[in-house]
Amino acid sequence: MIRLKCESRLMRVATAAFVLFAALLIAIAFIPPRAFSHPAEATPDAALLDGYRHVEVASVSDAMEKITGERMYLSHHMHPIFPTKFAGFAITVLLKKEENHDPDALSGMLAAIDQGSASSVYVMVVEDGADIAGMGGLMGTAMQARDFSGAVIDGGVRDTAYLRKIGFPVFALGSVPSTSVGHYRFASANTTVDCDGVKVSPGDIVAADSDGVVIVPRAKAAEVLATAQEMDFKEHSMYAYIEKLKSIEEAVKKFGRL
Fold it and tell me: What's the confidence (pLDDT) of residue 91?
């Protein structure tokens, strides 16, 4: 009698386990395949940025000129606060010169940071702002916390020692101790701006390295990257060829790149 009860209990347990397993299999069958995708799965945007992070900015500049006939690089006035290389999608901000006592005059500038996302590049234009710090350590900390790729300031930057300490990359017209508070008013965010003579629209690619900064319109980004990568390959192949033949003329004839 006891043996029959044990066998009956085991049968109930086995049946329940089978039903649970079957339900699990059915549930898995209806889960979309992307639910099991690797967290680091590359999206088209991620793959695009990865390409720009590895190609030389000089090649990007040449590719832009070849494809569009336009100069899309920032001038020699734009300097990094430390040697760096980054690429990301532009978030644009414009500050207009205006003396004021309004505590909210620059609130839109801060909101643009808090609304940004990973791989953003903060592109700020400070009107007539070569001697005005458009950003400093606090804004840099906020951008880094949100995984921004970097910042490009058509104006000054301050707290450079702290920005170097946390490793947040910034290109600017120079280092100045001044503030924009009380002297400027937020004008717009995510509109097309003129940054150091180059038009930058929201979502454009901003690529920077020790040679400078280049802006690539989003619609041309894939084509420009492919051309820049081809140029990089040719140029890197030429080094050994020049060393071997001791002739840059022969190398240029062979590879068609200078």
Answer: 98
